[in-house]
Amino acid sequence: MSTDLDTWRELPALQQPDYPDAAALAAAVAELQSLPPLVFAGECDQLKERLAAVARGEAFLLQGGDCAESFDVRGADALRAKLKTLLQMAVVLTYAGSVPVVKIGRFAGQYAKPRSSPVEKRNGVELPSYRGDAVNSIEFTAEARIPDPQRLVKMYNASAATLNLVRAFTKGGYADLRQVHAWNQDFVADSPVGQRYEALAAEIDRALDFMRACGVDTDALSSVDIYSSHEALLLEYERALTRIDSRTGQPYGVSGHFLWIGERTRNLDGAHIDLLRKIRNPIGVKLGPNATADDALALIDALDPEREPGRLTFITRMGTGKVRENLPRLVDKVTASGAVVGWVCDPMHGNTYETANGYKTRKFTDVLDEVRGFFEVHRSLGTHPGGIHMELTGDDVTECTGGGHVIDEADLHQRYETACDPRLNRTQSLDLAFEVARMYRENH
Ligand SMILES: O=C[C@H](O)[C@H](O)COP(=O)(O)O
Ligand SMILES: C=C(OP(=O)(O)O)C(=O)O
């Protein structure tokens, strides 16, 4: 395989910003090239091993976080709330589903968005679409929407700050499983799902007491591994952060542990596939409702020619109405080919719609039903439902309808804060985790 890391430049590159100033882009890229890696190749290899377990049916992937991260984050609260939500979901899945859970955040790099339309219209004014803080500003003015390459450097810095905090929270005691109650403290009183979680946490406490009484050292539970991930959309950024691993001489994307290729940029002859096939990270590819089994097989050949366990995860996002019809063909043919990939369900991106008053939203019932369809398909084929990929936040936003604390369309305006797509709030996320744990148990 050619290791020329710049052949993508000759290929069609979709969804790239149209920078007006080439010299400013070159300066930003040069600065990025001089900066240290955000993640280390050895960590990516460790994650690949864990994803191999997912693909073999021995573990479950929980991947979640914002649709679009923002540079405008003050303090640590939002990230702590997000981590807490992921930790609580992971505990529910591990305990109630009895399965090891691999945890990946959609964070520390999720700053760029592919868009359906290059332009946005408001009250007769048309401007370039917002493409994530890594590209332009969400503010609706002509100047704010001009792509600014210095934002790539800000993306690096924001990712570094986020990762630093993630490492502090997850290794410094906050994520200690013996704190299983503490993560829920602000949640118990007024929430049925909080109470349900509390009951589960009490069982875990008893189990830990039992282990301690038997002389088992529970110190190993004091930290967790949560890996970073984002869509590898902006090729200049990803190329500048592709580095040669000193241990192996192989290229790795060091902008995040797990990088995925989106539904809109997975064209086989395209630049995204060309760059990502050359790095050694574990990678994901989104597959939407129009993906064919032949597309999936060709993606495997392009991205995982050596059939390396854990290398490739397919993240399917068919929509609730299509998952039962479209997914079996893909899973069936890929399984028959002998390839071992992870199958993960993104029940968000195929279920978005706009309300009459202009809010992009998703129904919790649709989200849940797509996951249910995903489990049904795998059960009928005897394959492994490997995980879920969610857009979520730890805050009590009102962006998706339904779930435990019923939110309907008329409530969406109350706390609609996403920069792009609607996220599940903490209650909805935990509700979902309990349902998924139940589905997992039923499948096994
Ligand atoms: O998160 C995914 C995409 O970036 C998003 O769904 C695109 O949204 P749009 O259809 O409003 O452009
Ligand atoms: C853009 C995204 O998804 P998809 O490529 O599946 O549309 C996303 O997950 O942010």
Automatic annotation (TrEMBL):
<comment type="pathway">
    <text>Metabolic intermediate biosynthesis; chorismate biosynthesis; chorismate from D-erythrose 4-phosphate and phosphoenolpyruvate: step 1/7.</text>
</comment>
<keyword id="KW-0028">Amino-acid biosynthesis</keyword>
<dbReference type="InterPro" id="IPR002480">
    <property type="entry name" value="DAHP_synth_2"/>
</dbReference>
<dbReference type="Pfam" id="PF01474">
    <property type="entry name" value="DAHP_synth_2"/>
</dbReference>
<comment type="similarity">
    <text>Belongs to the class-II DAHP synthase family.</text>
</comment>
<dbReference type="InterPro" id="IPR013785">
    <property type="entry name" value="Aldolase_TIM"/>
</dbReference>
<keyword id="KW-0057">Aromatic amino acid biosynthesis</keyword>
<protein>
    <recommendedName>
        <fullName>Phospho-2-dehydro-3-deoxyheptonate aldolase</fullName>
        <ecNumber>2.5.1.54</ecNumber>
    </recommendedName>
</protein>
<keyword id="KW-0808">Transferase</keyword>
